[in-house]
Design brief:
Alpha-Beta Plaits, 6 helices, 199 residues
Length: 199
Amino acid sequence: MRNIQPILEGRYFHIYNRGVNGESIFRDNKDYFFFIEKLEEYVKKVATIHAYCLLRNHFHILVYIKENATEPKRDGKAGITLDFSKQLGYFFNKYAQAFNRRHERKGSLFTSPFRRKLIESDLYISSVIFYIHANAQHHGFVTDFREWPYSSYPQIIDGGSTLINPSWLFDWFGDKKMFIRFHESNKVLMEESQWVLEA
């Protein structure tokens, strides 16, 4: 049995998971949009989400785990400490239950435990952001990752998402133009050399 990397507060993680036995976890637009809605409802409380890509049978997200994440109790008197792994578990369960009802399906939907990789360098953060955005192209869903609607890239460029904060990403890369340039240059590299970042 492989070791499971502990989730550490104040660190960046590449989180990814797939359907059991390679089964689809998204069958139509409603599934994709519901997944994003629940990601915002459950995971954003405990992590800042910097990139995501949703594909038919798996997904990737880049998160920064918040330190001392809390939410107020219903009486407003004290805060409840939130745990990232538990929140992610609630998210998986909520999505799976709704998915099973919609598609008249039973049983587990996601593999367990979810996979995670600690990101330990600034360069690796930049590479993971591109890798996540380019995943649809890498798997042949589109010929240009910028055309895939179920990733954060178009949301970041258009500024049309409450899940992602584009200003952090633009600051990380220097500005919006440099963010775009980094993706474009790595797209060329990927096409010319079969560039793949191992998960």
